[in-house]
Specification:
This protein is mainly alpha-helical. It contains 15 helices and no strands. Mean pLDDT is 85; it is low at 194-202 and 387-392.
């Protein structure tokens, strides 16, 4: 138990650092970065979006390496890549160097964020990794809470270039040792080299399962990223003041932690498909409450959306494990989650267009998207493929 707690603390801390210095970095540094390099602000966000697309392309191959070699060498390499990319950002003088730096960060994101951490845990613990996966998301769920204030403080003290260098140093001084401390694992042959009927070979569920999971994760991640960028605008479009919108938006983070605690405390006794169904139902219910009762119900929406989003983050790790088992998990999960990264890259721009046109009415679209994901989850059945049968 103690060793598992230590593993979660080490990997969770490294993940918090990785998310805070990449995914959550532009929210604080994009504007000064654009001003100093002489590029439009939109170009910085475009470079970030391209980094997300690159991370989607890298994910399956990174997962395959973790399947074979374990997560330790891959995550150690990403610590170096994060440090290199952030160092290049600090040195960027124009659009070419800026895009090059974000390309390196994108490579690190593709092999160093949640999917890689989940694959590392599955490689170490097999089917028993569900609790550790939840623990990792509980810690890394604080990435924005820690990362935004720390980025802002470093930018105020040392400028945005100093902030990037500060994050690079943290990857070398903190992230690299943490990832290097992960347990070593023996190299394995590729999953396709296993005998088709050996005990270690995976029993494949129907092919549609992968497509359903890919759509569910892409749909929910599209909405999650869209709301992360535009929730304050939606709240103000409903009549709240800026202060009120920020206060309501601040509820999302604690609600995400509450959802993950619910998964860790009670729902992990059930098949993860049930947790995913519950999580996917919360956002559409929140939309209905908000639309029916108006801005006064916005806090209810924020709490429901946050809880569902927190639980769905865990489902991205546990559902592929439940349906496909631990053999070849990293590569397969990389393919299943790749569309999510693509959706994530385009969602702020696409949903922003809807907000400009319809205001708070854009929530009907987000609610319909997540409701379609919920319908797809009801098409799946527990007891399929590698998952233990607990009834549907």
């Amino acid at each position: 138990m103690r060793s598992n707690t230590s593993l979660v603390l080490r990997l969770g801390t490294a993940q918090t650092l990785a998310w805070a210095s990449s995914y959550y970095l532009p929210a604080i540094l994009a504007r000064p970065m654009a001003e100093a390099t002489g590029v439009p602000l939109a170009s910085v966000w475009l470079a970030f979006s391209l980094a997300l697309l690159l991370s989607a392309a890298i994910g399956p191959s990174a997962g395959r390496r973790i399947d074979r070699l374990g997560g330790r060498p891959v995550l150690m390499a990403t610590s170096g890549l994060f440090a290199l990319g952030l160092g290049l950002l600090a040195l960027a003088q124009g659009p070419v160097s800026l895009y090059l730096a974000w390309t390196v960060v994108g490579l690190a994101m593709g092999a160093g964020l949640y999917e890689a951490a989940f694959a590392t845990l599955v490689r170490l613990q097999g089917r028993d990794a569900r609790g550790a996966i939840t623990g990792i998301t509980l810690l890394a769920g604080l990435a924005s809470t820690v990362g935004w204030p720390l980025s802002a403080w470093m930018e105020a003290q040392f400028g945005w270039r100093g902030a990037c260098l500060g994050w690079a140093a943290l990857h070398l001084l903190l992230g690299l040792p943490l990832n290097a401390s992960l347990p070593r694992t023996e190299a394995l042959p590729p999953p396709e080299a296993l005998a088709p009927h050996s005990a270690a070979a995976p029993s494949e569920p129907p092919r549609h399962v992968a497509w359903v999971l890919a759509y569910v994760f892409a749909a929910t991640w599209f909405v999650s990223s869209a709301l992360a960028a535009h929730l304050p605008d939606l709240l103000m479009a409903s009549g709240l003041s800026l202060a009120g919108a920020l206060a309501v938006g601040a509820l999302v983070g604690p609600a995400q932690v509450a959802g993950r605690l619910l998964e860790f405390g009670g729902l992990r006794r059930f098949h993860p498909l049930w947790s995913a169904r519950l999580a996917a139902a919360l956002h559409p219910v929140g939309v209905l409450v908000w639309m029916a009762l108006g801005a006064a119900a916005a806090p209810v929406f924020a709490l429901l959306h946050g809880m569902g989003n927190g639980m769905l983050t865990i489902a991205k790790g546990t559902l592929p494990l439940a349906f496909y088992g631990p053999v070849g998990y990293g590569r397969r999960q990389g393919w299943i989650v790749a569309p999510s990264r693509i959706a994530q890259a385009f969602s702020p721009l696409a949903f922003g267009t809807l907000v400009e046109r319809w205001g708070a009415g854009a929530l009907w679209v987000s609610g319909a998207i997540v409701a379609s994901a919920l319908a797809c989850l009801w098409c799946l059945r527990t007891g399929t493929g590698n998952s233990p049968s607990t009834g549907a």
